[in-house]
Design brief:
single chain; about 160 residues; mainly alpha; elongated
């Protein structure tokens, strides 16, 4: 009858494997290690470690202060307003916003303090002949109508 072949595997020592990998690490990863040492030195030179040590030692006080600030009515309103403004900016077509930015830059961007002489009555009426002015006024009117509708439906601004 056949006898089984004995299989004897050497005992695996995970610590020994780690030690061998650690010995090879400086050779295999020399450039990465040098870069990390340089980064650590820069962090040390700029006082980042001191700042982090201070923050860790005062972590309870920092967390307590942050929680108290976040619980305030002003912080809650600020967070809600930021979310609403985010929705507003997300709903604006980027091409339209680019037009607004360009118009503002062309009108106000090249002056420290814009010097605009007020037009006379006839000059002002003459400007209404331009389609672009009428288009802009129509856009502003539409915005004001929608704002008025929202104020009416919500019962006024609070």
């Amino acid at each position: 009858m056949a006898r089984p072949i004995p299989l004897e595997l050497p005992a695996r020592d995970p610590r020994e494997e780690l030690r061998k990998r650690l010995e090879q690490a400086p050779v295999n990863h020399a450039e990465a290690l040098l870069d990390s040492y340089e980064l650590l030195q820069q962090l040390h030179d700029h006082g980042v470690f001191e700042l982090l040590r201070g923050a860790l030692s005062a972590s309870d006080k920092l967390i307590e202060t942050a929680v108290d600030a976040a619980k305030s009515d002003e912080a809650i309103r600020a967070i809600r307003n930021a979310m609403i403004l985010g929705k507003v900016f997300a709903s604006i077509n980027p091409d339209v916003l680019q037009c607004v930015a360009t118009a503002a830059s062309d009108t106000l961007g090249c002056y420290d303090k814009p010097i605009i002489e007020p037009p006379g009555l006839f000059s002002l009426l003459n400007q209404f002949r331009h389609k672009e002015l009428r288009r802009s006024i129509a856009l502003i009117n539409r915005f004001l109508e929608k704002l008025g509708d929202q104020i009416k439906h919500r019962g006024g601004c609070q």
